[in-house]
């Protein structure tokens, strides 16, 4: 029987609850949204005991469906002050689901703020253990200490020093497949600070003695999985080398943020092209790998330095863009060091890169000075006030320097994909409960109806984030619908599956409305409507009434029936 694991940090107790039968097809982001809407006061202090942290694997996690083990982390966000879901790869999602837990809910707050605790989950149940020896350890050091205590099968979910300090740019780290590097992050929205506020340093998930979740129609499920895998492996392989190789395309499209988005093309784009990383594999070592068992995408690059020493994993386009070109830094090795530091500290690279670029634009350090950026990041957990402000994100830096030109939407830093160039994606940033988040519904191609395109992209991505699939697997609604039916013996239609994605969005909007967000918040910063991009003259030109169309369900289009999740 599927269960919910409830962890009370105030009383240091754990208990199992039965998983509601009518929630069978709720998982990941959709399940997190439902729990938060039902159990959390949207007006609560995000770092107080009323807030709850939800870890929710997807509906298909733990099965043999390819690349389906992603984990959603949800809470009221200390960054946006609204609902937030951040999604991560790594091993914990598969393992938690194979243990029969559809969600782990962390509530309350440790009575003694000087202590740190871990939750250990295995086939015998769950328990809370004190682990104050891990207090303020960076994630790699904490992972190494945990690895010495637990079996090789154990996966770790970690709070870095940024989360323990309550910094609103803090992420939640997950260890990956094989290496157990804490290089996968539920990064956006400051959810690491929620974890840290509760005194929770780590969650250890050991699925020793379990097996893959069995489908009701095992033969049908296996056939569909085989077809999906064959089609993906025989397709275009868009993510053969991860997203780092997107840099030249983004530069050509004028959506490569440069010097705090003053420009959207970078003269050093060729230097930042991820193909340079691929070329280095032969001489430096490293290469491509997968972050979770069952992944067929293998988008994660393992980066070594010039001496062949491991530096970081999953150096992605967004990190290269925000920590590289947006800061005027044209050196992949320095960007890799920044990525590693963010992973060590538990910081979102998008928020952090945007914050550093704004500090550079305000004169605190020079654009292009990678060494200064690295030195500043290294002080985040050492009491440096400017470094801590960087760790609090773009809006905090804007307030610190009294800047009138802050690249944030609903208090969250804007990702690389530029809303002035890509107006449909701008509509997603303006309307998604997540704030400026490209994974909520990215639209990069020209479309006739941007509002409809945004709504449909948001819908399928909400469903994908609920299923456990990686967006890079690019499932369709039909894939998800069919596998749900085969897995759980259901008979839902295409429209039923689409409704699951739409309901997730409605639950998130409902939370935010109660939190105090209104129609006036569904827009971009005023400067994005007036300041043209130098290379293409683009501004965000979508009328407010067009943006608001997203909140009214539109008829399902033929395009949606063929659409694939993408983020």
Q: Do you know the CATH topology of the domain at 3-205? A: Aldehyde Ferredoxin Oxidoreductase,  A, domain 1
Q: Determine the number of helices (DSSP H or I, runs of at least 4 residues).
A: 22
Assigned CATH architecture of the domain at 3-205: 4-Layer Sandwich
Average pLDDT value? 96
Beta-strand content: 5-15%
The top level CATH class name of the domain at 3-205: Alpha Beta
- Flag low-confidence runs: none
What is the H level of CATH, i.e. the homologous superfamily of the domain at 3-205? Aldehyde ferredoxin oxidoreductase, N-terminal domain
Structural category is alpha+beta
- Termini Cα gap: 33 Å
Helix percent band: 25-40%
Strand order of the largest sheet: 2-1-6-3-4-5
CA-based shape: globular
Alpha carbon gyration radius: 22 Å
Q: Please summarize the sheet with the most strands.
A: 6 strands, mixed
């Amino acid at each position: 029987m599927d269960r919910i694991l409830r962890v009370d940090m105030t009383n240091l107790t754990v208990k199992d609850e039965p998983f509601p039968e009518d929630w069978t097809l709720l998982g990941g982001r959709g399940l997190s949204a439902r729990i938060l809407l039902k159990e959390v006061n949207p007006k609560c202090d995000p770092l107080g005991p009323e807030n709850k942290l939800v870890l929710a694997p997807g509906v298909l996690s733990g099965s043999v469906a390819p690349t389906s083990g992603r984990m959603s982390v949800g809470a009221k966000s200390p960054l946006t002050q609204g609902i937030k879901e951040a999604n991560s790869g790594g091993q914990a999602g598969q393992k938690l689901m194979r243990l029969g837990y559809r969600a782990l809910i962390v509530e309350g707050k440790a009575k003694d703020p000087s202590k740190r605790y871990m939750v250990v989950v295995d086939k015998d149940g769950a328990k809370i253990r004190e682990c104050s020896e891990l207090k303020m350890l960076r994630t790699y050091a904490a992972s190494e200490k945990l690895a010495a205590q637990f079996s090789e099968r154990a996966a770790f979910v970690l709070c870095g020093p940024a989360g323990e300090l309550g910094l609103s740019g803090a992420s939640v780290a997950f260890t990956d497949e094989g290496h157990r590097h804490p290089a996968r992050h539920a990064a956006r929205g400051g959810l690491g600070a929620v974890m840290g506020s509760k005194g929770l340093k780590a969650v250890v998930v050991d699925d020793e003695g379990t097996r893959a979740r069995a489908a009701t129609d095992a033969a049908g499920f296996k056939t569909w999985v085989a077809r999906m895998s064959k089609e993906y492996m025989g397709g275009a392989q868009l993510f053969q080398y991860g997203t780092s190789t997107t840099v030249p395309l983004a530069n050509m499209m004028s959506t490569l943020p440069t010097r705090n988005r003053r420009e959207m093309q970078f003269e050093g784009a060729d230097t930042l092209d991820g193909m340079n990383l691929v070329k280095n594999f032969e001489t430096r070592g490293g290469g491509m790998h997968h972050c979770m068992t069952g992944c067929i995408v293998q988008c994660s690059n393992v980066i070594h330095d010039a001496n062949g020493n491991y530096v970081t994993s999953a150096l992605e386009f967004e990190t290269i863009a925000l920590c590289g070109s947006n800061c005027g830094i044209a050196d992949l090795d320095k960007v890799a060091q920044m990525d590693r530091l963010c992973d060590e500290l538990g910081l979102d690279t998008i928020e952090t890169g945007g914050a550093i670029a704004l500090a550079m634009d305000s004169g605190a350090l020079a654009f292009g000075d990678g060494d200064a950026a690295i030195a500043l990041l290294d002080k985040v957990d050492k009491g440096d006030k400017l470094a801590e402000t960087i760790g609090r994100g773009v809006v905090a830096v804007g307030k610190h320097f009294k800047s009138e030109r802050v690249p944030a939407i609903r208090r969250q830093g804007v990702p690389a994909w530029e809303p002035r160039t890509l107006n449909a994606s701008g509509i997603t940033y303006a309307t998604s409960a997540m704030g400026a988040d490209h994974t909520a519904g990215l639209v990069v191609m020209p479309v006739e109806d941007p509002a409809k395109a945004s709504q449909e992209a948001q819908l399928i991505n909400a469903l994908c984030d609920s299923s456990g699939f990686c967006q890079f697997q690019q499932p369709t609604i039909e894939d998800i619908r069919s596998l749900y039916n085969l897995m759980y013996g259901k008979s839902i239609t295409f429209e039923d599956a689409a409704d699951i994605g739409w309901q997730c969005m409605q639950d998130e909007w409902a939370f935010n409305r109660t939190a105090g967000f209104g129609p006036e918040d569904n827009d971009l910063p005023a400067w994005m409507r007036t300041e043209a991009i130098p290379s293409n003259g683009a501004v965000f030109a979508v009328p407010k009434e067009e943006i608001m169309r997203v909140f009214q369900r539109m008829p399902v289009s033929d395009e949606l029936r063929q659409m694939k999740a993408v983020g």
